[in-house]
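4.2 Preliminary Data

To establish feasibility before requesting continued support, the project team ran the inverse folding procedure on a target of 342 residues. The structure was first converted into the token representation described in Section 3, and no sequence information of any kind was made available to the design step. The complete token record follows.
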């Protein structure tokens, strides 16, 4: 007698990712590679274009196959100019100045090749969820609404995340980043960033190679425009192509087994710089590893990031206060981990 073969149950999870930024496209690539049926919804009509310096540590290549064509410059250190003292911060590993739009296009291409579907020009207006039911995303176009059901939904929709709002989580702390491009100064060190701390933020100059530099400030939203204009005047920079975006800070983790947050939507940015790419990719890597167990991801993510955010904030406040008030107590040179701090 023939023994019937064991039935093979292939459970294909239907996943919606809201937002095709760097975190959403990376996650789509990883989840599609694991066999999930991934749909990414992006409200913009094209990939990329976020206001971002693209100063990302070499750990970027722990997440993606190395693509040298995206690198504009390599940065070894930052010179912090307090009013009465300069402090040199040495980065370990070194930072790369990356073509940010190019990086997002690269990640989107990897995701598509792995089988993820990316829908552009699709604004997710809301996420509906009820206990015991599969969640739905609400798409809105030309006044018409469509309701789509998924096994799980991941909000990678950035600072003003609608997924986070639908879960009624508290909004993170917001700072406003403004940047513009201009000519590099003649005495600009080619492999160092210049940083100018203020009471509630800082200004920066990043050499982007080929005689170009980026001038920017990160400040409380109410002061941001004034501080940026003042900074450009002081640096005698004639900025062109001014871009701005909000940087959220403060871990937001839903208690939901079918809906998760990642990247800026989860408030994952470094206190001392506002950088969020490696932090967002680290969380997305955890989610892909634990998928489809979102509750496990949420627990692991909290365990990993909560202490780093807490101590990062204390370090930043202490260093800024000492630098502005008691600079003699600060060492002249400090080596830090580019992503995790002192
Ligand atoms: C001025 C500035 C400079 C920065 N410089 C650096 C830096 O040098 N290094 C660094 O590591 N980080 C930097 N950051 C932070 C970094 O840009 C973010 O941490 C990173 O972009 C987060 O990626 P993300 O994919 O989570 O979100 P995002 O890049 O914001 O992507 C979110 C995506 O979701 C889409 N979206 C939003 N809402 C919806 C919706 N309702 N429906 C559909 N789609 C939606 C958006 O259009 C966007 O494409 C900077 C930020 C700013 C503002």
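Position-by-position output of the design step:
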């Amino acid at each position: 007698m023939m023994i019937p073969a064991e039935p093979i149950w292939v459970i294909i999870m239907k996943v919606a990712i809201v937002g095709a930024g760097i975190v959403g496209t990376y996650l789509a690539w990883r989840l599609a590679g694991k066999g999930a049926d991934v749909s990414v919804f992006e409200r913009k009509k094209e990939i990329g274009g976020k206001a971002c310096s693209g100063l990302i540590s070499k750990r970027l290549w722990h997440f993606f196959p190395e693509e040298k064509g995206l690198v504009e410059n390599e940065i070894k250190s930052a010179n912090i100019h307090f009013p009465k003292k300069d402090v040199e911060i040495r980065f370990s590993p070194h930072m790369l100045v990356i073509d940010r739009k190019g990086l997002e296009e690269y990640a989107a291409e990897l995701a598509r090749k792995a089988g993820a579907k990316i829908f552009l020009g699709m604004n997710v207006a809301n996420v509906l969820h009820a206990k015991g039911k599969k969640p739905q995303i609400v798409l809105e176009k030309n006044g018409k609404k469509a309701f789509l059901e998924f096994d799980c939904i991941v909000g990678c929709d950035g600072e003003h995340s609608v997924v986070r709002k639908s879960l009624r989580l508290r909004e993170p702390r917001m700072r406003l980043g403004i940047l513009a491009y201009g000519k590099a100064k003649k005495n600009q060190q080619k492999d160092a960033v210049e940083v100018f701390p203020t009471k509630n933020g800082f200004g920066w100059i990043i050499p982007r190679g080929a005689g170009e530099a980026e001038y920017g400030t990160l400040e409380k939203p109410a002061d941001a425009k004034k501080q940026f204009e003042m900074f450009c005047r002081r640096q005698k920079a004639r900025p062109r192509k001014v871009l701005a975006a909000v940087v959220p800070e403060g871990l937001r983790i839903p208690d939901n087994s079918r809906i998760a947050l990642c990247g800026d939507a989860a408030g994952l940015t470094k206190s001392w710089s506002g950088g969020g790419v490696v932090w967002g990719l680290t969380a997305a890597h955890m989610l892909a590893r634990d998928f489809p167990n979102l509750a496990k991801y949420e627990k692991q993510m909290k365990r990993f990031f909560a202490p780093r955010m807490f101590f990062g904030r204390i370090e930043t406040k202490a260093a800024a206060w000492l630098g502005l008030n008691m600079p003699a107590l600060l060492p002249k040179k400090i080596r830090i981990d580019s992503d995790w701090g002192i």
